[in-house]
């Protein structure tokens, strides 16, 4: 049997190989760079030469016994909202952002300090304001799970999941304001972690909503998410291997899942609820306890989504105050929704802020009977790009994409999605786990245990049909 290619190994395996000398960062980078599929359009700015130079620096540091972190030498794609040296930040728009949004923030600086290898800037929906992944300025990345039709990859981190599917990156940075990490992860068969508000820095990231923005990661497996989280999270770097120990100890009988919130299960496209129900049945048979715990704040959170929450108003103010010329070039699918938000009164905006605080407080009390809530991640199958070209056809699909994910943001919670099956259209289905704020360690431990029972995306789903040949 042939040994796996470097890019096919887990992050933990790669880290060990880089340190025992059986693999170099340059060889790993070349292997990943060779996987790039331009026709999938994952990247706005593909930077292989910069990646090679960064890999050389990672190797040079290791040769001097400078072990700077678990992501040293790991190829990472970066959403085009983050400032990144050597590239420009467009935030999905047709022109570069003003200078404050070109500088690197704390998260990128931390990765650069570990000698991570940046493969380029991945596409985003314009100003990250959309859940499908459509971008008329730069083109919409192609979801590799449909070899024939151009389907959306999920947004707003629309190039992130595609970069993982093609194998050009082994870790992808995204942002999540109402689901923008979890939706593309779910739609492309990846793992996506939405961190708690305030847990990770958002400096150096173009803001969609200061009230709700969070940074997050997409990975090929929960095990990789654990490794990446441990390397990025400032608390984990202080605690050392604590999270790894917690993940390793977590067994099926150590946690309870709550699956009773009907608002997250109704009106799903064919095969989606069934795939998640089948996964939950497997978990129950393996010894995981499932209870009928509910999260009633989900329904009012979805109602806020439908009227734009505070997001539309905040991005409208941002553009009006700092870059008014960008209003003139907005994609119509984005501008109509921003215009709606900009038209609300200050009183209405403050009332929505107050409603979010009230819902968050109530939601924090709903985890007495279970540690984690479970549901389908996305209620709709990824539509064809040709079917969401007008405002009238786009809006209901966009709401459908965001419906199940927005609650974690609006209710102040953390969440993760992992792939568990295919829907009737043969597109990936994600299982979403939601935990209280700042409970990422428990969330990741539970997700890792579930992955050990159900298998990784590669084991359970196989390769995307669009990647064959």
Give an overview in words.
The protein is an alpha/beta fold and about 475 residues long. It has a single domain (about 25-465), classed as Amidase signature (AS) domain (Amidase signature (AS) enzymes, Alpha-Beta Complex), CATH 3.90.1300. Helix content is about 40%, strand content about 15%. It is built from 18 helices and eleven strands. The protein has helices at about 10-20, 25-35, 50-65, 105-115, 160-165, 180-185, 220-230, 235-240, 240-250, 270-285, 300-305, 310-320, 330-340, 345-365, 390-400, 405-410, 440-455, 455-460, and strands at about 45, 75-80, 115-120, 170-175, 190-195, 215-220, 255-260, 290, 370-375, 415-420, 430-435. The protein has an eleven-stranded mixed β-sheet, sandwiched between helices.
Main sheet properties: 11 strands, mixed
Distance between the termini: 21 Å
- The CATH superfamily is Amidase signature (AS) domain
How do the strands of the widest beta sheet line up side by side?
Answer: 1-3-2-4-6-5-10-11-9-7-8
List segments where confidence is low: pLDDT < 50 over at least 5 consecutive residues.
none
What is the CATH class designation?
Alpha Beta
How many structural domains are formed by the residues? 1
Radius of gyration computed on alpha carbons: 20 Å
Core attributes:
Amidase signature (AS) enzymes; 469 residues
């Amino acid at each position: 049997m042939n040994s796996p290619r470097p890019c096919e190994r887990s992050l933990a395996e790669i880290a060990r190989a880089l340190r025992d000398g059986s693999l170099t960062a340059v060889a790993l980078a070349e292997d990943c760079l060779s996987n790039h599929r331009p026709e999938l359009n994952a990247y706005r700015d593909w930077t292989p030469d910069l990646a090679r130079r960064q890999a050389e620096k990672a190797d040079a540091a290791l040769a001097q016994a400078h072990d700077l972190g678990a992501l040293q030498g790991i190829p990472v794609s970066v959403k085009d909202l983050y400032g990144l040296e050597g590239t420009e930040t467009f935030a999905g728009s047709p022109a570069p952002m003003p200078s404050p949004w070109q500088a690197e923030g704390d998260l990128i600086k931390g990765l650069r300090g570990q000698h991570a290898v940046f493969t380029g800037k991945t596409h985003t929906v314009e100003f990250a304001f959309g859940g499908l992944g459509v971008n008329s300025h730069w083109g919409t990345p192609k979801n590799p799970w449909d070899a024939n039709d151009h389907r959306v990859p999920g947004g707003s981190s629309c190039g992130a999941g595609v970069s993982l599917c093609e194998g050009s990156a082994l870790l992808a940075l995204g942002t999540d304001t109402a689901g923008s990490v979890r939706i593309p992860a779910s739609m492309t068969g990846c793992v996506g972690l939405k961190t708690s508000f305030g847990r990770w820095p958002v400096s150096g990231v173009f803001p969609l909503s200061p009230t709700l923005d969070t940074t997050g990661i997409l990975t090929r497996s929960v095990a990789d998410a654990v490794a990446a989280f441990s390397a990025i999270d400032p608390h984990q770097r202080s605690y050392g291997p604590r999270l790894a120990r917690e993940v390793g100890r977590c067994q099926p009988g150590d946690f309870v899942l709550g699956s009773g919130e009907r608002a997250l299960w109704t009106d799903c496209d064919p095969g989606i609820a069934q795939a998640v129900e089948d996964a939950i049945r497997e978990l129950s048979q393996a010894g995981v306890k499932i209870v009928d715990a509910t999260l009633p704040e989900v329904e009012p959170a979805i109602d806020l989504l439908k009227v734009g929450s505070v997001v539309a108003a905040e991005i409208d103010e941002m553009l009006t105050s700092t870059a008014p010329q960008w209003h003139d070039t907005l994609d119509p699918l984005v501008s109509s929704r921003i215009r709606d938000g900009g038209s609300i009164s200050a009183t209405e905006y403050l009332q929505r802020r107050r409603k979010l605080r009230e819902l968050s407080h109530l939601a924090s009390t709903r985890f007495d009977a279970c540690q984690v809530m479970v549901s389908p991640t996305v209620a709709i199958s990824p539509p064809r790009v040709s079917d969401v070209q007008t405002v009238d056809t786009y809006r209901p699909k966009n709401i459908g994409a965001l419906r199940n994910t927005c609650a974690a943001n609006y209710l102040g919670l953390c969440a993760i999605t992992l792939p568990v099956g295919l829907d009737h259209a043969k597109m990936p289905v994600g299982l979403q786990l939601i935990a209280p704020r700042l409970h990422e360690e428990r969330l990741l431990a539970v997700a890792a245990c579930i992955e050990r029972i159900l298998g990784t995306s590669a084991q359970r789903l196989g390769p995307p049909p669009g990647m064959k040949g």
